[in-house]
Write a structure and sequence with these properties.
alpha/beta, 9 helices, binds 4'-deoxy-4'-aminopyridoxal-5'-phosphate
């Protein structure tokens, strides 16, 4: 077996023990004569898998009783619509803090169903920092305040949770979900596609404060995006993505075995710290993000000479380092260091970068 070091932004690396468990559970799960892929979502074997995943996620994230945990479909992009359709209620508008491509897209989607007020956006139009809270222009009557704790493309991350917000806080945690402890009580709603830090593509996790579901949804709200329907039917209003749900459950177990979110946060801090320290020490590489807002999950960097990009990527591939090409909208490189990316991968990447700078600088 020769597995590469996978720096993909999502779908992304999964923990090896999870993959091995998946293999062991095929073609038969726990003596029930069939695999998870073939089970009815209404029969007990799958119901037990689904239940356990929910229990483990609640434990991992410390989800209080007053919150529903929903397993949905459609990715974070479906949530860009589901959030306003479910939560605008009697309010005319919602506030959005825009710090990158994804929060921008979330605001645009909200604009189809109501008004998306831009509460803050970097004044220079570049996504390299988080505008300080003091600069935000908040509407006290907003339905909620939406922000994106980690911008996957720009590599910009909040290292703080907005405080003193008098409306429910909604966060798209897609690319930093389960990467560090979070105080769920401070949020009205959290959502995340699983394909970066929490499993395979196809399932989206929503954690929502129960009382927010008293709001009247838009009449056009599709049933599959209705949080009330999903909550009432334990996320089995229709056929859920059963295999992806099962894989997420294995990831939650693996995370509990890593010492939970505190344990994994310490590893993540070491990984990103090592890479940023190296980038800062070497003029050949540049990270454009303000030091207070650097992402621990997606480290973006450019080479001093962009004409070397193709060489850099080809050499990296030969060294077993893949998925480093930056997003097409920003260019350069991006190393996604999600939970399942081992420290060894970062060490190998830094060694490769050092050697490349020495021979091409
Ligand atoms: N939000 C963020 C922060 C993301 O990184 C992504 C995917 N890269 C999305 C939303 C869109 O997610 P999906 O493809 O699951 O709809």
């Amino acid at each position: 077996m020769s597995r590469v070091f996978n720096f993909n932004a999502g779908p992304a690396a999964l923990p090896l023990p999870v993959l091995e468990q998946v293999r062991e559970d095929l073609p038969e799960w726990h003596g029930c004569g069939m695999s998870v892929l073939e089970m009815s979502h209404r029969a007990e074997p799958f119901l037990s898998i689904a239940r356990q995943a929910g229990i483990d996620l609640r434990k991992l994230l410390g989800v209080p009783d007053g919150y529903h945990v929903l397993f949905m479909q459609g990715g974070a992009t479906a949530q860009f619509a589901a959030v306003p359709m479910n939560l605008l209620g009697e309010h005319r508008s919602a506030d959005y803090v825009v710090t990158g491509t994804w929060s921008q897209k979330a605001a645009e989607e909200c604009g189809k169903y109501g008004q998306a007020r831009i509460a803050a956006r970097p004044a220079d139009g570049r996504f390299t920092r988080v505008p300080p809270h003091a600069e935000w222009k908040l509407d006290p009557d907003a339905a909620y305040l939406h922000y994106t704790p980690n911008e996957t493309i720009a590599g910009v991350e909040f290292h703080w949770v907005p405080e003193g917000i008098n409306v429910p806080l909604v966060a798209d945690f897609s690319s930093s979900f389960l990467s560090h402890p979070v105080d769920v009580k401070r949020f009205g709603l959290i959502y995340a596609g699983a394909q970066k830090n929490a499993g395979a593509a196809g399932i989206t996790i929503v954690v929502v404060r129960k009382e927010l579901l008293d709001r009247k949804p838009l009449t056009q709200l599709p049933k599959v995006l209705d949080y009330r329907e999903m909550a009432a039917r334990d996320s089995m209003m229709n056929t859920p993505p059963t295999f992806a749900w099962y894989v997420s459950g294995l990831v939650f177990r693996w995370l509990l075995d890593q010492g939970g979110l505190e344990g994994i946060a310490a590893v993540n801090a070491r990984k990103s710290g090592q890479l940023y320290d190296y980038i800062d020490s070497e003029a050949f590489y540049v990270n454009p993000v303000d030091k207070t807002a650097r992402s621990r999950m997606n480290v973006v960097f450019t080479l001093a000479d962009a004409a070397r990009d193709a060489d850099f990527l080809a050499g990296a591939k030969r060294a077993g380092l893949v998925g480093l090409k930056g997003h097409r909208s920003v260019g350069g490189m991006r190393a996604s260091l999600y939970n399942a990316v081992p420290e060894e991968a970062v060490k190998t990447l830094v060694e490769y970068m050092r050697e490349f700078a020495r021979t091409h600088g």
